[in-house]
Design goal:
Helix content: 25-40%
Number of helices: 14
CATH architecture of the largest domain: 3-Layer(aba) Sandwich
Shape: globular
CATH class of the largest domain: Alpha Beta
Largest sheet: 7 strands, mixed
Radius of gyration: 21 Å
Structural class: alpha/beta
Number of strands: 19
Distance between the termini: 37 Å
Length: 420
């Protein structure tokens, strides 16, 4: 990927908290310098300079937000060579369809009302809304994703969501009954502008629904691979409640979802539109009790991540010394955090398999492991497979029965290193 001087100049250390702008950021975990985790390399780029960026998790002492403290230009992250597709797994697709159906029931008479999805990717969630009778519109800066969505009949604006984008949508299509952002709110660099845009675009009785991996689940389960440059923030109810209040909005409910190792769904509205659920205060009390805003507990997470790295590397080293062949299964962005943090390359893994054709034939960023199609396992019989997309383990293991039926064993690295 060509990086212009202008792009690189926009990469910078955080000046303070991404939400409250406080400047007291405390180090939790240093994952070293890492490449953009979705920048999969073509073979001809393997000898080129590969840009690495600091990847550190910090905690804001003022509002409690967990975030990274170095921001990579979003043009680098999303405009060029972005290969994530939300339709890759059946588990993810089913989750989004269920989400759309649940939100439709949450509203009265959704027929013809506008649903806007921010970071809509190829339009899986919006297709669910469309099936429920909504008019739909996506906003996504990734060129390939937006093209695919439009080709599939899901109208999508290929751009970042800002207050200006929101005003344009409101002028052309009216207010939105539903605004969603799944695994995107924590990615937004111009967060204040996007949030103000949501407020202006939202109908008086509308609802904003945001999903993001739960910071509390991440800390409790040592899910350090959730940390990468696309994820600026690691969200929890207390800083989210404070942030929305500061922007004239109201967090009125939260729900825990199982997907991605534990995800929180946040429901946001114009103040007073609905009764605030007791789940909000209960969630915040649970976060406080779990030590999510206690720097000593957070530093314990950092120590646990380093211990887990040693445990995984010890296992892989012992297997290689015993003459075993090991591969990787799936190449998600989170997998590249794990591979680079643990320094796992072709010394350990012969190759990684994928079903996303946009990644097949390329190499993992930083570690340069070749990515082959899942079908290679029909003929090849490695002894062990490190399952990098562990959050979709049941589906992936079921899809790759050919591997286990020939005696292959899966290594699940998180939440504990386990052989299945």
């Amino acid at each position: 990927m060509y990086l212009s001087p202008e792009m690189l100049a926009k990469c910078h250390a955080a000046s303070g908290c991404h939400m409250c702008k406080g400047t007291n950021l405390r180090l939790v975990l240093d994952l070293g310098s890492q490449p953009h985790s979705d920048d999969f390399l073509e073979e001809q780029r393997l000898s080129d300079i590969e840009f690495l960026y600091p990847l550190r998790l910090v905690s804001c002492a003022d509002c409690g937000l967990l975030q990274i403290d170095y921001f990579v230009d979003p043009e680098i992250l999303y405009r060029v060579n972005y290969v994530y597709e939300s339709s890759t797994t059946k588990t993810g697709t089913a989750h989004y369809r269920d989400m759309a159906a649940g939100i439709a029931k949450h509203l009265s008479n959704p027929q013809g009302k506008l649903a806007v999805d921010i970071g809509s990717n190829v339009g899986v969630l919006l297709q669910g809304f469309k099936d429920e009778g909504f008019a739909v519109l996506g906003v996504d800066p990734a060129q390939h994703a937006a093209r695919t969505a439009n080709a599939n009949g899901i109208e999508t604006i290929n751009d970042f969501f800002t207050v200006e984008t929101a005003r344009m949508i409101r002028e052309q299509k009216g207010t939105a009954a539903v605004i969603t952002g799944t695994n995107v709110f924590a990615h937004i660099h111009s967060l204040d502008s996007a949030t103000d845009g949501m407020r202006e675009l939202l109908a008086s009785d509308g609802v904003i629904v945001i999903e993001a991996p739960s910071a509390m689940e991440m800390i409790d389960k040592v899910e350090y691979d959730t940390i990468y440059h696309q994820h600026i923030g690691y969200l929890s109810a207390l800083p989210m409640k404070r942030y929305f209040e500061a922007h004239g909005l109201e967090l009125y409910d939260v729900e825990l979802q199982e997907i991605h190792g534990g995800t929180l769904r946040y429901f946001v509205q114009h103040p007073g539109a609905r009764t605030i659920s007791a789940r909000v205060d209960k969630q915040i009390a649970g976060e406080i009790a779990a030590g999510l805003y206690d720097i000593e507990r957070l530093k314990g997470f950092g120590k646990d991540a380093k211990a887990q790295r040693i445990e995984l590397l010890t296992l892989l080293t012992d297997l290689k010394r015993a003459g075993k062949r090991i591969i990787g299964i799936s190449a998600p962005a989170k997998g590249n955090t794990l591979l680079n943090f643990c320094h796992i390359d072709t010394t350990y893994l012969d190759y990684v398999t994928e079903r996303n054709i946009l990644k097949v034939g390329k190499y993992t960023p930083g570690t340069h492991i070749p990515i082959l199609n899942d079908s290679i396992l029909d003929t090849d019989s490695p002894d062990y497979a490190l399952l990098l997309a562990w959050n979709f383990a049941p589906e992936i293991m079921a899809n790759l029965k050919c591997f286990s039926e020939k005696g292959g064993k899966f290594i699940i690295p998180i939440p504990r290193v386990t052989i299945v």
